[in-house]
Amino acid sequence: VFKRFVEIGRVAFISFGPHAGKLVAIVDVIDQNRALVDGPCSGVRRQAMPFKCMQLTDFVLKFPHSARQKCVRLAWEKENINEKWAATRWAKKIEAREKKAKMTDFDRYKVMKAKKMRNRIINHEMKKLEKMASKKGKKPKLEKAPKSEKAPKSEKAPKPAKAQKAQK
Amino acid sequence: MAGEKAAAEKKPAEKKPSQKKAGEKKPSQKEGGEKKKKVKRHHASRNPVLARGIGRYSRSAMYARKALYKRKYTAPETKIEKKKKEKPRATIIKPVGGDKNGGSRVVKIRKMPRYYPTEDVPRKLLSHGKKPFCQHKRRLRASITPGTVLILLTGRHRGKRVVFLKQLDTGLLLVTGPLTINRVPLRRAHQKFVIATSTKVDISGVKIPKHLTDAYFKKKRLRKPKHQEGEIFDTEKEKYELTEQRKTDQKAVDSQILARIKKVPQLRGYLRSTFCLSNGVYPHKLVF
């Protein structure tokens, strides 16, 4: 049922408070509500932090309990947590949300145009498939469906990439 | 009296240093040359002191003793006084029509008042800093710079995105569509009713003609009542008429701006579109 546990070395994401948005490693447990936490590579000093503001990630580091900051840092850099984190979907969603909030009026216009173009292409292909499906029987439809579905998917990729580049 | 007292005290003090000065001045004079005027030697006080603050002679006696009747100085005439001598014209000669009227009349320029109120107007208290509109300080938001794309919020062009050119003397913003993009001509817009976006067009080299001022854009109104009660509302200019000058000015400005707009991809389409709010879009959360 539970997959991520609070343990020594668990990397957690701080959701609110003064260090919102940073990653920390749990170094020790103080009592039921607080943990001793340290984030040498993310700019968080070693401190007590309530569990409520932490959200557990999938990463676990290896170091003994109450290890000093140097050890935590070594473990962190060995595992390359910063890069792994940036590659997770979680971090990407956060980044996308931030970018969306920063969009200017012009960027919104560009995104609208890109979405419109993309949808047009997709709908065009769909209409083609539907037309073929309605004309012929089921067998030829199965052959043609995977081929034409790949075409809109490859076109999907450049459109949002273009939108992200335009935003930057 | 105070002045005299100061003078009287000054002079016995000056007695010794004045003699010293005289002694000093003479040799310097001789050294300097004999062309200089004679330095005036100051006389000692002609009003002996009886007690501190009390002189022997009265004001009038001192006047005579100091021979002030022959020492009257006037301040040198300043330029202001020289100018004041030029009195403004009091009357003017105006031609008069009709026979036997003698061609012209002498008319006063500044006439006596034709009405005096029964009660005097009370004196107003002093106020400061109440300037007329023409002297007001004009401010411009920091986010609005030449070339900024603005969103008009009021008027017949509401929702349209428009390029800002410059701020006019009354504080209104001179703005253009350009006309071929969104049908907004060279127009004035009010700073308060405009959203400044962060999109800027580079207008560094664009030359805006100097005759585009507030007077150029001001609405013209006919104000000659012809005493025809039925047609009063029609004679006033309701219909705006395009003049050739406006067209040429529009072309002159727009041609320069269009070239710069075409350099930025998708900007032309952006200016053509209008701004609108839809579900889930909150202006206070939008970054413009």
In short:
The complex is a heterodimer of chains A (168) and B (288). With 168 residues, chain A is an alpha+beta fold.
List keywords for this structure.
heterodimer; A: 168 residues; alpha+beta; SH3 type barrels; five-stranded antiparallel sheet; 6 helices; 5 strands; 55% helix; B: 288 residues; two-stranded antiparallel sheet; 9 strands; 14% strand; elongated; disordered N terminus
Residue share in β-strands of chain A: 15-25%
Count of DSSP helices of chain B? 8
CATH level 1 class label of the domain at 10-81 in chain A: Mainly Beta
For the residues shown, what is the average pLDDT of chain B?
84
Element order, helices and strands of chain B? HEEHHEEEEEHEEHHHH
Alpha carbon gyration radius of chain B: 38 Å
From the 3D coordinates, which CATH architecture of the domain at 133-218 and 244-274 in chain B would you assign?
Answer: Roll
Measured by residues with Cβ under 8 Å of the partner chain's Cβ, the largest interface is: A-B, 9 and 16 residues
Q: How helix-rich are the residues of chain B, as a percent range?
A: 25-40%
Spans of at least 5 consecutive residues with low confidence of chain B: 1-34
| DSSP strand tally of chain B | 9
Identify the overall geometry of chain A. Answer: elongated
Which assembly state applies to the chains in this document? heterodimer
